[in-house]
Amino acid sequence: MKFTKMHGLGNDFVVVNEKTVPTDVLDLAVKVCDRNFGVGADGLVYILPSEIADFQMRIFNSDGTEAEQCGNAIRCVAKYIYDYQLTAATEINLETKAGIQAVSLTVVDSKVTAVRVNMGSPILEGEKVPTIFNENPVIEKEIMIDGTSLCFTAVSMGNPHAVIFVDTIENHFVKGLGPIIEKHEYFPRKTNVEFVEILNQSEVNMHVWERGCGETLACGTGACATAVAAYLTGRTGPSVTVRLKGGDLFIEWDQEQNVVYMTGPSTVVFTGTWLL
């Protein structure tokens, strides 16, 4: 199996261009993503043919679960498709489990330098995120974790997010509270967890605990969910730079179209062959 190791702001993936997904893909994802005995990655990503879009993307987390979509992986896939000459187009539609994503590429010297993704409309209805709350939207809902009272805003960008605003991001939040919140009874399909510090009306810091992956350096859908939650709660405007451990993403929530756009880079690390 030929693969390309890529990352979007440190959120890293093993990207494979194939006709089909193998039957043992869940076990394969765990083995390939293992950072000691495998290639090492947050996810195994397949680029596949699509009957309804230009290409299809499927992503399998390092724990063997399949994700609906991933913003950083979408940017990596888009760069792969263009740089490896699978298409000459700079406007690409990608089929994901969360729907079709429209992608625009910035190309310099025949290489993709930035990717702008139409991430679709945010889902705010509690039961569709999903949470157990029949509210629309679910804003600043209290959750008690080990005696600590926090408030989350629930947003789905095709996958569920619990966005928690804090005065200062403490080290124990992500690794200590993140895994507990991920599996909390409030979230029937588990959730990604974002801890967010507001810098000003157009900038935020975000650290993330990703469902099925653990702490990562960046999360594209999480950055989108954070921008939506920050605007809903009156903390920022509709366009923000989200500063993550791995770098920055620019997020725009177009109010007229009710569509969220994400712009950021993606990078090739190396190529290799995995012996099946």
From TrEMBL:
Pathway: Amino-acid biosynthesis; L-lysine biosynthesis via DAP pathway; DL-2,6-diaminopimelate from LL-2,6-diaminopimelate: step 1/1
Major subcellular location class: cytoplasm
Site (Could be important to modulate the pK values of the two catalytic cysteine residues): H161, E210
GO MF annotation: an example: diaminopimelate epimerase activity
Keywords in alphabetical order: Amino-acid biosynthesis, Cytoplasm, Isomerase, Lysine biosynthesis
Residues bound to substrate: N11, N61, G71, N72, N159, N192, E210, R211, G220, T221
Keyword Transmembrane tagged: no
Signal peptide: none
Protein name per the record: Diaminopimelate epimerase
GO biological process, one term: lysine biosynthetic process via diaminopimelate
Record-linked SUPFAM superfamilies: Diaminopimelate epimerase-like
HAMAP family: DAP_epimerase
Keyword Transcription regulation: no
InterPro entries hit by this protein: DAP_epimerase_AS (IPR018510), DAP_epimerase_DapF (IPR001653)
Taxonomy, superkingdom: Bacteria
Family stated for the protein in its record: Belongs to the diaminopimelate epimerase family.
Example of a GO cellular component annotation carried by this entry: cytosol
Residues at the active site: C70 (proton donor), C70, C219 (proton acceptor)
Cellular compartment(s): Cytoplasm
Quaternary organization: Homodimer.
UniProt xrefs under Pfam families: DAP_epimerase
Reactions mediated catalytically: (2S,6S)-2,6-diaminopimelate = meso-2,6-diaminopimelate
